[in-house]
Write a structure and sequence with these properties.
single chain; about 160 residues; alpha/beta; Rossmann fold; four-stranded parallel beta sheet; 6 helices; 4 strands; elongated
């Protein structure tokens, strides 16, 4: 899947940079000439990376803050596009996308570890409670509780693998 980028810059610098991003990164690039148009785009679409010309970011810090607040999971990179070559912008974008991919992988691994731990804890509690209940179970309840003990034990063993 190709990343979707938002390029916020004056129309005069956009064409070569957008084309280089499309070609070198095989990215979908949406361009906007203003922060207001960028905010509207950010409400409609999700972006992997947002590149903004420094001149637009520094004019009004309050509206630049709005961009950061509405970026969602996208990284924002501010560049002086009047001084940067298209090749440099591509390198910066590639590095930012790689960083984002690494951050997402770490977050997914941490979420998986947390989920695994919580499931293991919950299953251990169910197993302990059902074993304790089995001690005092009536003859009608015992088969169901043994079945519950077996299921919880099997699930816990699967989680250990």
């Amino acid at each position: 899947m190709h990343p979707t980028l938002l390029l916020i810059a004056p129309d005069s610098v956009v064409p070569p940079i957008a084309e280089a991003l499309r070609h070198d990164l095989r990215a979908e690039v949406e361009t906007t000439p203003s922060r207001r148009a960028a905010l509207a785009s950010m409400r409609r679409n999700e972006f992997a990376l947002i590149l903004i010309d420094e001149s637009l970011a520094t004019i009004d810090s309050a509206s630049a803050d709005l961009l950061y607040q509405n970026a969602g999971g996208a990284l924002i990179v501010e560049l002086n596009l009047a001084l940067c070559s298209a090749a440099r912008v591509v390198r910066q974008a590639r590095a930012a996308l790689a960083r984002r991919t690494q951050d997402l992988a770490r977050a997914q691994a941490a979420a998986a570890a947390t989920l695994h731990s919580e499931l293991n804890t919950t299953l251990s509690g169910v197993l302990l409670e059902s074993q304790l209940a089995l001690r005092d179970a009536s003859p009608e309840q015992a088969p169901r509780l043994r079945h519950l003990v077996q299921l919880a034990s099997d699930l816990r063993d699967r989680l250990r693998v």
